[in-house]
């Protein structure tokens, strides 16, 4: 087995410990970095260029889907494997569209993770359970050549989606500005724009939008 | 005499992570792993663990129900709940099903050992939504 450098992104340390134990039992596989949220996952992927980034879909600050999109853009040789609690069709489609090469259910990860990482390293995509080859072919075909365009179904820009998640996590405009390293005025402008686009009149409505569109967890 | 701990969680990866966390205590032995509440009750009867780390949300039978059943058995096993959520009602639900405390998943790596030590000396651990860091 060839050496593989892996980044682990999950907000639960107990899960990261379990994943690390599984992965480092394979000769030559090394977890070179851990991240507790999507933003850290993106930064470390960009800096360290791991072969594989294992990303939990539900992370605070920047969720796994957005992190996947950004990692695919900023560290193109890093292959992203997404971990999730559910495998509903809409979610799978989003994961594929975001550019992940693989998807593993958390309930099956102990048995499936090693073979999933192996498949990714052999340059194959791997999706466990429920995903048929037909769906995969359709979406992979569609994604080719349009990697850098924003999610077609969303009326919001990627930056606005980031702001939605942070607002849904209860952050004020000031805190949003601090996390995104923009001015408070710019954060406010994003908030006003996205609320107008979504026709939301309160933060509670923004939260509902976020949960329904998998930007934040309930 | 080695301390016996039973881990009940439906995610194998979480059970492995807990094992890793507890490796630091050489005189603590993981006597078994259960993947749902029913298995937890059965294994508790078989193995008589000192403490059971019990995930709250499990298929077949939830952690609450399992803890409730275990409290009715002639066992001295103490239950420590393991949960995603840290709500005000968690403490009440935990106490009502006979558990001696709960640990929130996001803080499991830091809190587990302390929580288990408390339970093993007859105490409780209900302070997860605290100011400590």
Please name the defining characteristics of this protein.
heterodimer, A: 218 residues, alpha/beta, Rossmann fold, Arc Repressor Mutant, subunit A, 2 domains, six-stranded parallel sheet, 10 helices, 6 strands, B: 133 residues, 41% helix
Description:
The complex is a heterodimer of chains A (218) and B (133). By secondary structure, chain A is an alpha/beta fold. Chain A has two domains: 4-143, Response regulator (Rossmann fold); 158-212, Arc Repressor Mutant, subunit A, CATH 1.10.10. Chain A has ten helices and six strands. In chain A, helix 4 (89-98) links the parallel strand 4 and strand 5 (102-105). In chain A, helix 8 (173-180) packs across helix 9 (184-198). The relative contact order of chain A is 0.11. With 133 residues, chain B is α/β, with parallel strands linked by helices. Among the domains of chain B are: 1-6 and 24-29 and 38-46 and 60-77, no CATH class; 100-128, no CATH class. Chain B is built from five helices and five strands, in the order E-H-E-H-E-H-E-H-E-H. Chain B has a five-stranded parallel β-sheet, sandwiched between helices. In chain B, strand 3 (51-55), helix 3 (63-72) and strand 4 (78-83) form a beta-alpha-beta unit. Chain B is globular and about 35 Å long. The N and C termini of chain B lie far apart (33 Å). Classes of the chains: A alpha/beta (218), B alpha/beta (133). The interface between A and B is medium-sized, with 18 and 18 residues.
Secondary structure topology:
The complex is a heterodimer of chains A (218) and B (133).
Chain A: E1 4-9, H1 13-24, E2 29-35, H2 38-48, E3 52-56, H3 64-74, E4 79-84, H4 89-98, E5 102-105, H5 109-121, E6 126-127, H6 133-143, H7 158-168, H8 173-180, H9 184-198, H10 203-212
Parallel strand pairs in A: 1-2, 1-3, 3-4, 4-5, 5-6
Helix pairs in contact in A: 1-5, 2-3, 7-9, 7-10, 8-9
Chain B: E1 3-8, H1 12-22, E2 28-34, H2 37-47, E3 51-55, H3 63-72, E4 78-83, H4 88-96, E5 101-104, H5 108-120
